[in-house]
Design goal:
The complex is a heterodimer. Chain A is an alpha/beta fold. Chain A is built from 7 helices and 14 strands. In chain A, the strands form 4 sheets. Chain A has a 6-stranded mixed β-sheet with strand order 5-6-7-3-9-10, with helices on both faces. A 3-stranded antiparallel β-sheet of chain A has the order 2-1-4, with helices on one face. In chain A, a hairpin with a 5-residue loop joins strand 12 and strand 13. The termini of chain A are far apart. Chain B has one domain: ABC transporter involved in vitamin B12 uptake, BtuC (Orthogonal Bundle), CATH 1.10.3470. Classes of the chains: A alpha/beta, B mainly alpha. The interface between A and B is medium-sized, with 31 and 30 residues.
């Protein structure tokens, strides 16, 4: 592994138990600046618990936790239920845990594609919109460490791609460390430096490709998922703008994207395709895609 | 001006409404209405102890309320009894204990009705000073901890993860609540304090787009209830404490009418 500067947070042999059962145990985890670490694992494997241990939200029953000085954290929790009794607009939500410069807020909201929602009541947002708003809030803080607990839940597939790209962009621009919990075993970002596969303990770790081919991973998730652990690589030749129009690589803007207008790349290599046959808008060969499910926006 | 009992009552009511607005919002957001009830029931025990020990009434009530809060925190951590049962148990135990202790103090004649329902018309200039000094202190501290307090009301985990200290803020908030209950006891009595705290906040919710706006609106609605209650009680010769609460109820019901709904719809548009 690359030797980097001091870790932002580190867990050493950390474990938490509840009513004499270990939720997760023996976790060694370090996140360095500029590094993306992804946690994967089946339900109940201790992904969220590990993230909470890293954040210092759970007191450890075993092991130790350390963090760098004056660490600014941006956290996107898995669930955040906002009650109707709590009146909250999106722009007020942006400054929930601290003052943030107005231009940082608008830049973050533009990047996540929710700039037009700044006055909306948080309760009225859809699941996907709210995820983007939470991501924008965490980004606007200009964090040293970004902790994302399933940031793409409720986000549609194209949005999922956008958000993964955005996370990568944040890492490049801000240089923050990212701890990402992924709910989707099949798609792990190519930008991930290290994947930790959890099942009550760390069962394997390494680069996405190394983890996918390890015996432990195959035993845990079965051969089929191991074969289909796709390293997400996406070549963008057009962008969907928030208002539904499409900006193409040559700078032209159209109302829709057409599969046969030459803006869509050829089929990527087989190991880069999602296995679960989700409609991969940008990855189909021209002409194969039926007219009726052209992107409407 | 302060010679007039009615003016003093108005000023006392306004003073309490100023504090009750923002504090009541937090209570509504955190679903602590029953907790507020428990603390105010405990005030009866505070009164009984004050008389027995010949101590200052407000301070005694404050100390008892703080003790009950701490006992609740400790018992909740042990987790053998559910929170709501625990609150019910503490509330009525404190009330019953207070009444039993009072019955032993045969040499004092205590106006139980005033204790339970308040006696705003008997507010003295000293009481007024106490309300405004204490109220100023509470508002100052509340402004200081407002951001972490609001963030922790929304999500304690998020607040803690991003470096705020929700636990510490919660404890400060409990102290503030005990202080306000000690202050408000004189105005509406121990049985109705929670109503004074949560009614303006609940009414304000329909018209507010943001938390700060809701707190300010709750103050305004609280002051309106005090005016309505006091003038109503003067006009119809009704007990003042309950009249203030009834005025609050009337405002709440007005906010539920189509008039209120239209207002609320205008103020919370989605997007553009």
């Amino acid at each position: 592994m690359l030797t980097r500067s001091e870790a932002l947070i580190s867990l050493t042999n950390a474990g938490v138990q509840r009513s004499r059962q270990w939720l997760v145990r023996g976790v060694d985890l370090k996140v360095h600046p500029g590094e993306i670490v992804t946690l994967i694992g089946p339900n109940g494997s201790g992904k969220s618990t590990t993230a909470k241990m890293a954040l210092g939200l759970l007191s450890l029953d075993e092991g130790a936790r350390a963090q760098s000085d004056a660490l600014v954290v941006g956290y996107v929790p898995q669930k955040l239920a906002i009650d109707w009794t709590l009146p909250l607009t999106v722009d007020r939500f942006m400054t929930l845990t601290g003052r943030v410069a107005a231009d940082a807020v608008s830049a973050a909201m533009t990047a996540t594609g929710v700039a037009h929602l700044w006055q909306a009541d948080v309760c009225t947002l859809s699941g996907g919109e709210f995820q983007r708003v939470m991501l924008a809030r965490a980004m606007a803080r200009k964090p040293d460490l970004l902790v994302l607990d399933e940031p793409v839940q409720d986000v549609d597939f194209n949005g999922e791609i956008e958000i993964y790209e955005l996370i990568q962009k944040i890492r490049e621009d801000v240089g923050c460390g990212v701890l990402l919990i992924s709910h989707d075993l099949h798609v792990v970002m190519a930008a991930t430096d290290r994947v930790l596969c959890l099942n009550g303990h760390i069962c394997c770790q390494g680069t996405p490709v190394a983890v996918a081919s390890s015996d432990e991973y195959q035993r845990l998730f079965g051969l089929r998922s191991a074969q289909s652990l796709a390293v997400y690589q996406h070549h963008h030749d057009h962008t969907h703008m928030p208002d539904g129009r499409v900006r193409h690589a040559d700078g032209s803007i159209t109302d829709h994207c057409h599969p046969d207008d030459g803006s869509h790349g050829a089929l990527p290599p087989a190991d880069h395709v999602r296995s679960d046959s989700a409609p991969l808008a940008a990855g189909r060969p021209a002409g194969e895609r039926p007219r009726k499910d052209q992107d409407a926006g | 001006m302060l010679d007039d009992f009615f003016t003093r009552a108005l000023l006392a009511g306004i003073g309490v409404a100023l504090v009750a607005g923002p504090l009541g919002c937090i209570i509504v957001w955190r679903r602590l209405a029953y907790f507020g009830d428990t603390l105010s029931h405990a005030a009866v025990l505070g009164v009984a102890l004050a008389i027995m020990l010949d101590a200052n009434l407000t301070i005694s009530v404050f100390v008892v309320a703080i003790s009950v809060s701490c006992a609740l925190l400790v018992l909740q951590r042990r987790g053998s009894v559910s929170s709501d049962s625990l609150l019910g148990l503490m509330a009525h135990s404190a009330l019953a204990l207070g009444l039993v202790v009072l019955s032993f103090l045969t040499w004092v004649r205590i106006d139980l009705m005033a204790l339970l329902l308040g006696d705003i018309l008997a507010v003295s200039v000293n009481d007024l000073i106490m309300i405004y000094l204490g109220g100023g202190l509470v508002l100052g501290v509340l402004a200081w901890i407002w951001r972490p307090l609001f963030a922790a009301s929304l999500s304690p985990e998020l607040a803690a993860a991003e470096g705020l200290a929700p636990e510490r803020v919660n404890i400060i908030f409990m102290v503030l609540m005990a202080l306000v209950i000690a202050m408000a006891m004189k105005i509406v009595g121990v049985l109705l304090i929670t109503a004074l705290l949560i009614m303006p906040a609940v009414t304000a919710r329909r018209f507010a787009a943001g938390p700060e706006q809701m707190a300010l609106l709750a103050v305004a609605i609280g002051i309106l209830s005090v005016f309505g209650g006091l003038f109503g009680s003067l006009h119809w010769d009704t007990p003042t404490g309950p009249s203030i609460v009834v005025a609050g109820l009337v405002l709440f019901m007005l906010s539920m009418t189509p008039l209120g709904r239209r207002q609320a719809a205008v103020r919370s548009p989605k997007g553009e």
